[in-house]
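Homework help thread (please don't just give me the answer)

Our assignment gives two proteins as sequence + structure token strings and asks us to describe the second one. The first is just a warm-up. Here they are:
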Amino acid sequence: MLRAARRNRHDRTRGGGDRDERGVGRAAARAFAARKDTVALLVRRQAGLGDAALDVERLGGRALAIPTDVASYDEVEAAADRVERDLRPG
């Protein structure tokens, strides 16, 4: 079952498949990082994952980068489980 979109300052946003939509996801990640939030990055293409994580960390946020094909229910569920396990407030 997919988790709630917002819990304890954890927000979920999604970029998309083309260049413009990826820019929206990256911009949202940067905005959350500027607030010093923790950002879970779910990206299909491994190449952009490291750069996005560095952007978040340079802006003062914490990044959890998870390679995920959001078209795959099982991969999204596994990513959600990892986010809850790794980012749950302690």
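The one we have to describe:
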Amino acid sequence: MEPVIVTSESKLRGFIDAAVEAAMSRLAPRLSPAEQDRPAKNWLTNREAQDYLGLSKATLARYRADGTLPYSKVGASVFYRLSEVEALLERSGASAPPHSKAA
């Protein structure tokens, strides 16, 4: 019989995050620069989308308002599907994500 391990959700999440980070560190040297800049999750926060696209908060708000970039809200938080953000880049003719303004 397999042993049962009991832990808290936060400790489990920390363990998973550390394992994913370690795996990504080993994989990163094999990725192209564009692949290295790509976030490792499917949804981006407003700030992450700003950084990824190199846009101001106002421009991103305009893109939401005019339907240029679809989004979802949970409470007051705004989220964007990474696939939609990348589709916006494709439509604009960008071949790779620009570097963050914050960097």
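TA reply:
I won't write it for you, but here's a hint about the kind of observation we're looking for: Strands lie at 43-45, 72-74, 77-81.
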